[in-house]
Write a structure and sequence with these properties.
single chain; 263 residues; alpha+beta; eight-stranded mixed beta sheet; five-stranded mixed beta sheet; 8 helices; 25% strand
Length: 263
C-alpha cells in the first residue's frame, strides 16, 4: 500500500507500541488479582493503566528520546514541539468491571496539530489509526486495513448521534439544547468514551458531543475523524482536542451541531 505522509514512521512506531500495550492489557483484563485504586478525582486507576503507560514511555524513550510525553497517569515529561499524548486505558471503569468497551489511545502532536492517532481496543478485536495526509484506517496494520469514510447524512432527522451519558450534561448551560437534540435525531445511543468517535469515522454514527474531556481523552481520536473526512472541534468550533470538550461529526452536520450546542 503506497501512502505518502511525513509521519508514517511515527505511525508505525505507535502501532508497534499498541501491540505491546494490547498484550499487557489483555493479560490484566478480567484478572482476579487486578489492583484498582482511586485517583484524587475519585476515578479508578488499575495496575494495568500504570503498566501500560510505562510501556509507552519506555518505547518512546528508546526510539523518540527528544520528544515530549503527556500521559494520564504520569503527567508531562520533556519539552518539544513534538509531543506524544497517551491515555493507557480509555474506559477504565469498563475495564475494571469486565466490560470490553475500552481502548488505549496514542497520539502525536506536532506543534498545534495532532498528526498521528492510534485507538486500539483489543477486547473488541478492533484498532483504528491515522496519520496526517495518509487517511484513516481500521485494522491491526496498514497492510490489509480498511479505509474509513464518514457518512453523507445531512439532517439530524436522519442522523445517529452518539454521546457518553446524560449525567455528563448535568448542570451544563446547554443541557436543555442537548436534550432537544436527542429528540430531534433519528437515533441516539450513549456508547461512551472513544467508541462513538470511531463510529463517526466509520460512517456508522453521524455526530457526537461531550461537554467535559481531557486532552488525552481526545487527541488520538482527532486525526482518525479528520482523515476519514469529518470534523473534530471543541464546542466553540475550534479545531483539535484542546478545548476541554468535543464535537465531532461527518462535517455536513457540524455547523448545525455547533449551533445547537456551541458555547
Amino acid at each position: 500500500m503506497e501512502l505518502r505522509s511525513d509521519y508514517l514512521a511515527d505511525l508505525n512506531l505507535a502501532l508497534e507500541i499498541a501491540d505491546r500495550v494490547d498484550r499487557l492489557t489483555m493479560e490484566r483484563f478480567g484478572a482476579a488479582d487486578l489492583v484498582v485504586d482511586s485517583k484524587p478525582d475519585l476515578t479508578p486507576v488499575s495496575d494495568a493503566d500504570k503498566r501500560a503507560e510505562q510501556i509507552v514511555r519506555s518505547v518512546l524513550g528508546e526510539h523518540r528520546p527528544a520528544d515530549a510525553i503527556l500521559g494520564e497517569e504520569y503527567g508531562s515529561q520533556g519539552q518539544s514541539e513534538r509531543r506524544w499524548i497517551v491515555d493507557p486505558i480509555d474506559g477504565t471503569k469498563n475495564f475494571v468491571r469486565g466490560v470490553p468497551l475500552w481502548a488505549s489511545l496514542i497520539a502525536l502532536v506536532d506543534g498545534d496539530e495532532v498528526v498521528v492517532g492510534v485507538v486500539s481496543a483489543p477486547a473488541l478485536g478492533a484498532r483504528w489509526f491515522a496519520a496526517r495526509g495518509a487517511g484513516a484506517w481500521r485494522g491491526p496494520r496498514l497492510e490489509g486495513a480498511r479505509r474509513l469514510q464518514v457518512s453523507r447524512v445531512e439532517r439530524f432527522e436522519d442522523a445517529s448521534l452518539g454521546y457518553s451519558s446524560l449525567a455528563a450534561w448535568r448542570g451544563h448551560p446547554r443541557r436543555e439544547q442537548f436534550l432537544a437534540l436527542l429528540e430531534e435525531c433519528w437515533r441516539t445511543r450513549g456508547y461512551g468514551d472513544f467508541f462513538p468517535y470511531m463510529m463517526v469515522a466509520e460512517g456508522a454514527v453521524d455526530a457526537c458531543a461531550e461537554p467535559e474531556l481531557e486532552v488525552y481523552d481526545m487527541a488520538a481520536l482527532v486525526p482518525i475523524v479528520v482523515e476519514a473526512g469529518g470534523r473534530f472541534t471543541n464546542l466553540r468550533g475550534v479545531d483539535g482536542p484542546f478545548g476541554g470538550n468535543a464535537a465531532a461529526s461527518n462535517g455536513l452536520l457540524h455547523e448545525a451541531l455547533l449551533e445547537r450546542l456551541g458555547e
